[in-house]
Amino acid sequence: MKKPILLAIESSCDDTAIAIVKGNSILSNIIGVQHIHNFYGGVNPEIASRYHQRDIVLLVHQAIFEANIVKKQIDAVAFTKGPGLIGSLLIGASFAKSLAIAWMIPIIGVHHIQAHILSHFIEIEGRSSPKFPFLCLTISGGHTQIILVENFFKMTILGQTIDDAVGEAFDKIAKIAGLPYPGGIWIDYYAKNGNPKKIFFSKPKIGGLDFSFSGLKTQFFSFIRKELKKDPKFIIHNLYDICASIQKSLIDLLFDKMLLAIRQTKIFSIALSGGVSSNSYVRTKFSKVASKKGLKLHLLPVEFATDNAAMIAVSAQIKYSSALFDNLDFVPGANCGWNL
Ligand code: KG4
Ligand code: ZN
């Protein structure tokens, strides 16, 4: 059977990502990164929308060119339907609709977090996709969830953050330490030369499989403020150890809850996705324990762990095969529902 060719747009936050896939294999996958937000120390929603508007036409052209196809070969257009910044989502959805009308093909809206989970089904050489059921830890700037994935359509949230997402906590803590945005990458970078046991931060006591990160952020802030009173150069003198210690504290929270989820569900196949899953300590820690405890661990190459459009395209393929299309009056939502 002919494999459908899909064009996907991911514009939930600040990056304009476009991908074209044939079946689950990538023909092109490009990301227009909006570096301007680094200057503001975080994503400015209005600027994000304006830059999506500016860049999307060129990026779609580039994706078609790199895929080495012609427009009429494309069978459907997929887009992120939410959650995300509403201005950014509207641009991706409106552009998808315009293409669909011009090319007379269907549109498919995809849930951003489900796409992070289904990114494990992108065809990548030398890598096999997880078998159902598996547990997925989605850790990103906007979400922190443990999800039981029973099949492409049955996903159940077992636990999630009750306040900040883990990536958000990384970024806020990095800001307190004077590091640039997005701070998670910088904490990871400096932590490599630090002692993770140098500074102790106590763990929040949250029952079940839910998470909380805002307490650690407050603890970190109070600690830094106290130390700076004694030594105004405390951060510069101790940056490596500060980064290694707070990184360990944040990641150990994820790790403890994942172990609990494995014990409760008796599911030994686990997958990590989202920007924070590219963190080197996360990868080392989970890999070590997976080999010790015989867990089947699925990690993604960094370009598919962070936001990308290939994950939207592959998720849309699943909907395409069941003819689950959206109507042209579809409106994306900043906090859109979980149903596929
Ligand atoms: O999945 P993603 O690209 O976008 C969202 O859906 O949010 O994740 C972005 C988040 C940011 O908070 C960023 O600081 C964090 O992922 N991040 C990292 C690393 N790389 C990206 N956090 C820790 N260590 C990293 N290496
Ligand atoms: Zn994301």
Automatic annotation (TrEMBL):
Key words, A-Z: Acyltransferase, Cytoplasm, Hydrolase, Iron, Metal-binding, Protease, Transferase, tRNA processing
Subcellular location: Cytoplasm
Sequence ranges assigned to domain Gcp-like in this UniProt record: 26-313
EC number: 2.3.1.234
Cofactor (UniProt): Fe(2+)
Enzyme class, spelled out: transferase
Transferase in keyword set: yes
GO molecular function, one term: tRNA N(6)-L-threonylcarbamoyladenine synthase activity
Residues annotated for Fe cation binding in this entry: 112, 116, 307
GO biological process, one term: proteolysis
CC terms in the record's Gene Ontology section: cytoplasm
NCBIfam families in the cross-refs: gcp_kae1, T6A_TsaD_YgjD
Full protein name: tRNA N6-adenosine threonylcarbamoyltransferase
Organism taxonomic ancestry: Bacteria, Pseudomonadati, Bacteroidota, Flavobacteriia, Flavobacteriales
Protein encoded by which gene: tsaD
